[in-house]
Amino acid sequence: MASDLFIVIVGCGRLGSHLANQLSRAGHGVVVIDTNEHAFGNLSPEYSGFRVEGDATELAVLKQAKVNKADLVVATTRADNINLMVAQVDSSALLMANHDSLQIRVRWFVCWVQGQSGTILL
Question: Alpha-carbon dihedral of residues 50, 55, 60, 62, nearest 10 degrees?
Fold first, then answer.
């Protein structure tokens, strides 16, 4: 099995919950963020990760999800502007966290926009 990753998924709809379930089943550490508590019902009973209810465009919510320790961040909300905003807030937070602690790690951010994905190496 590959090295365990710590993954933060923003949005717990069909795509986000599917990814969270699969990655959790594969043994990775997963945190799902969603503004709607009922969306977490999409997660399988076997899902072993964490749930954070809140707006992922707010830095406090990203901190609660420990996004600064994430190896991968995936934004899967229905709103393109939210996904892009999370990418912007997340990259700024990660750069600040890396600068303050002088820690250098490879981080990936995946963002879904209008049905297409884009990958940004941070």
Answer: 50
